[in-house]
Design goal:
By secondary structure, the protein is of the alpha/beta class. It contains nine helices and twelve strands. The chain folds into two domains: 131 residues, 3-Layer(aba) Sandwich (Rossmann fold); 143 residues, Rossmann fold. Bound molecules: NADPH dihydro-nicotinamide-adenine-dinucleotide phosphate.
């Protein structure tokens, strides 16, 4: 008689953050695991105090977790506990995904990579193009670095607060490490997008739940239908900005699409398998509607 295999070992991944309870990663990832037949893979949402990160990383190793996402406030601090980080994570100065290979920890930043995958799935190649990026925080930083490394010709960063660590620091990093022509503009009123711009990116938190009626202060008439607009806001799935762009017939993609792409990349890094992004997107839509 064949004995049924008895293997109840859980494969653990998850997210460390604070606050973290509103992070929908578990919904997206576990929907993918189920569809892939990875029944014993679990995505844990873990609240880690700022001063407990080292213990949390030791816990990850002790539990032989396969990997973890890091969100605020740990993305920068976590680097000192890692054995190796990717080139782009080094330039961005932040890690959001860790892979644990038998106790050796590798750090990657998938924020900008999810963004690039979202552009690619819309048929956009950044090589030789020009972009206007609103915002100069963590998301903008990873997006600009990835576009710079992929050969974009021109980036204009528009931000309301000029800050050495954000706008200026980012300009310097791009100038030193990529060939992109980059300039920084203060955002002090409705911004008019220059003609000839190919890609427009809202990399601010404007429009994020619960402030769902807010729109970035952009002259909407300056956005033309030969431009492509990418929003970073994942919640709501369709922001007021994206709704208005769609009403005007401007090609665009949501931050939810970007989030799904980076979650799919995380799963590939942890399991070695490609998940079904449609299933992940539907799970997110169901959760946030
Ligand atoms: P940060 O706090 O690092 O940066 C926020 C940016 O938004 C800053 O440039 C800030 O400007 C700007 N900003 C905030 N409020 C306003 C406003 N009212 N008017 C103009 N600018 C404003 O956050 P992150 O960069 O980490 O995240 C930004 C957004 O990106 C979040 O909503 C997050 O959910 C989303 N995100 C989405 C991802 C995805 O996969 N879809 C991945 C990563 C992030 P200032 O410097 O002047 O304060």
């Amino acid at each position: 008689m064949d004995l049924k295999e008895q293997n109840y070992l859980d494969h653990l991944v998850g997210v460390f953050g604070q606050p973290v309870s509103e992070n929908p990663g578990v919904v997206i990832q576990e929907a993918a695991f189920q569809a892939m037949g990875l029944e014993r893979w679990r995505f844990l949402t873990i609240d880690v105090d700022r001063d407990q990160l080292e213990n949390a990383i030791n816990g990850l190793k002790a539990f032989k977790m396969r990997g973890i996402n890091c969100t605020m406030p740990h993305k920068i601090e976590v680097i000192k506990y890692l054995d190796e980080i990717s080139e782009s994570a080094k330039l961005i100065g932040a890690v959001n995904t860790i892979v644990n290979d038998g106790g050796r920890l590798f750090g990657e930043n998938t924020d900008g990579k999810g963004f690039m995958m979202s552009l690619e799935s819309n048929g956009i190649d950044v090589n030789g193009k020009s972009a206007v990026v609103f915002g100069a925080g963590g998301a903008a930083r990873s997006i600009c670095v990835e576009m710079g490394l992929a050969g974009i010709a021109d980036i204009t960063i528009v931000n309301r607060t000029q800050d050495r660590h954000l706008g200026d620091g980012l300009v310097e990093i791009l100038q030193k490490n990529t060939k992109v022509k980059v300039r920084y503009v203060d955002w002090d009123g409705p911004y008019s997008i220059e003609e000839g711009t190919d890609i427009v990116i809202n990399a601010t938190s404007v429009g994020l739940y619960p402030d769902i009626d807010a729109m970035p202060d952009i002259d909407m008439d300056s956005i033309k239908d030969n431009m492509f607009v990418q929003d970073v806001i994942p919640n709501p799935v369709e922001t007021a900005f994206i709704k208005e762009l769609r009403r005007r017939g401007i090609p665009s993609s949501t931050g939810a699409g970007m989030l799904i792409n980076q979650a799919a990349l995380n799963i590939l890094m942890w399991t070695g398998m490609e998940p079904d992004k449609d299933i992940m997107y539907q799970a997110l839509e169901r959760e946030l509607s």
